[in-house]
Design brief:
With 495 residues, the chain is mainly α. The chain is built from 21 helices and two strands.
Length: 495
């Protein structure tokens, strides 16, 4: 048969695709990495010399901007570099790189904008560019449907933000965000609550929280690099928005409690949806929804620095998972393989590790040492540590005796690293208004803590598997827009 390899043919490594010779991918990739190096240098100056600059009423470079510029350019550089090979051969290669580069610049502008028009315009451009990336394959009907779905949500988010900003400009008579936030206390309560509600809705739409999560679950038509940029960066914009507007929310206990509730419901629902998914990218989408819920919850607790820490770590984690998602197809579990059973000593060690993790976090950060929302944050750390420890016990291939010693060491080291990063980011963004503003404990915190504990127990006991009604309800809730679903094999071939 012609075309078949001969037995003595040597296997040769793949050559670099010719499309990498295009000027746009090389130029944008190099530029992003230069921006990253400049961002690192500026961040170092901010830390050592308190370096800040800006154009009054237009741009501001403070600690929050410094952190986000480094994070954004780093993730963008990774995506640019990865895309040079992944997207090779795409007929719209230059347009793809132009959009992800423009997206990077727009996000950097959003984090530094101090004028309401510039801020709102950058927020709108960020959404439109992401919608365009979701619909990158122009002749794929499902991709275009996903882009339209996302665009509707992003336009709604931008409209709500514009309305909230307009109300604040009208009430304060100034167009600079710094000036507005400095006069929040003079804004009539009705106007302030209206503006806060508009800004909050804009944030949770962008971060795909319940009930606005369907755009994220419908966006799986995006090229994998675009999905990585979306999940590692774009959805985090909600946390950045709430952190920038922290003075508008902090001090309003009822409002902050409502933010906690919305974040908690989204976190729990996202985690529940994750349990019933079979598609790799949709699993990651549900996971992102859960993580964004935790991020917004931390904002509601008044720990905006913790939210920024969370989005940084989540960005690293989710970018890696998306860019390596192709490997998951080959990493199948052999039939008949079983997870380790959790023994009584393992359960005891997990519990002690969880309590130790909470105590370590409290000692290193000072959160949880007083009867305020910091106590709830420490409780979340305990619950998360418990889950991580038990999961490692069940998945590890090490001997039982080695697991009993290694699991606490690994988990507590991770908690210590998280606490130190939290402290570092708190120090860098300390100049931002209300970087830390803990609230009093309320009945909402107690109720959410109970809900978290109950959900953890339900997951451990596998209630979602034993209840067909619950399973179907979760599966239905996780369905994307019908127009974005590929129902025929031929649709893949046409793409």
């Amino acid at each position: 048969m012609t075309g078949q390899p001969r037995a003595n043919d040597a296997v040769q490594p793949l050559e670099e695709p010719d499309s990498t010779a295009s000027f746009v991918p090389r130029a944008t990739t190099a530029t992003v990495w230069v921006l990253f190096l400049l961002g690192v240098g500026a961040l170092a100056l901010s830390v050592t010399n308190g370096f800040e600059w800006g154009i009054a009423g237009v741009l501001v470079y403070d600690g929050l901007t410094a952190v986000m510029w480094v994070v954004v350019t780093f993730f963008s550089g990774i995506v640019h570099s990865y895309s040079r090979r992944y997207m090779a051969g795409d007929r719209h290669l230059d347009a793809f790189f132009a959009r992800i580069f423009a997206f990077t610049l727009v996000v950097m502008t959003t984090t530094a904008a101090d004028h309401v028009a510039l801020f709102a315009g950058a927020w709108l451009a960020m959404g439109l560019l992401m919608a365009s990336l979701i619909g990158h394959v122009r002749d794929w009907p499902q991709a275009q449907a996903a882009a339209r779905t996302a665009r509707r949500y992003f336009l709604a988010s931008s409209g709500l933000l514009a309305v909230g900003l307009t109300a604040l400009v009208w009430a304060t008579g100034t167009t600079g965000l710094s000036g507005i936030l400095g006069q929040v206390e003079t804004v009539p309560q009705t106007v302030a609550l209206f503006a806060a509600g508009s800004v909050f809705l804009a944030a949770i739409i962008q971060s795909a929280l319940f009930p606005f999560h369907s755009w994220l679950l419908s966006s799986m038509t995006a090229p994998t690099p675009a999905s990585a940029l979306m999940h590692a960066g774009f959805v985090n914009a909600g946390g950045i928005l709430l952190t920038r507007f922290a003075p508008l929310f902090a001090g309003e206990t009822a409002l902050m409690s409502a933010i906690v509730l919305v974040g908690a419901v989204s976190a729990l629902l996202g985690q529940a949806l994750l349990l019933v998914q079979t598609d790799v990218k949709r699993k990651l989408g549900a996971s992102t929804m859960a993580q964004m819920g935790f991020m917004i919850l931390q904002c509601g607790l008044g720990f905006f620095a913790a939210a920024i820490t969370h989005l940084v770590l989540h960005g690293f984690y989710k970018a890696y998972l998306f860019l390596s998602s192709g490997e998951a197809v080959e990493q199948t579990t052999p039939k008949g393989a079983k997870r380790n059973r959790l023994t009584a000593p393992g359960a005891v060690v997990s519990l002690l590790t969880a309590l130790g993790g909470g105590a370590l976090f409290a000692v290193l950060t000072g959160k949880g040492m007083h009867p305020d929302s910091g106590l709830f944050l420490a409780f979340v750390v305990v619950l998360t540590t418990m889950h991580a420890a038990r999961d490692i016990f069940r998945r590890s291939t090490l001997s039982p005796s080695v697991r009993l010693l290694s699991v606490p060491l690994v988990v507590l080291t991770a908690i210590g690293g998280y606490a130190l990063l939290f402290n570092a980011i708190s120090t860098v963004i300390a100049g931002a208004p209300m970087a830390t503003a803990p609230t009093d404990l309320t009945v909402v915190h107690v109720g959410v803590a109970g809900l978290f504990a109950l959900s953890y127990l339900a997951t451990e006991l596998g209630w979602h598997r034993s209840s067909k009604r619950l399973y179907v309800a979760l599966l239905n809730r996780s369905q994307p827009d019908p127009e974005t679903i590929l129902t025929r094999k031929e649709d893949y071939n046409d793409a």
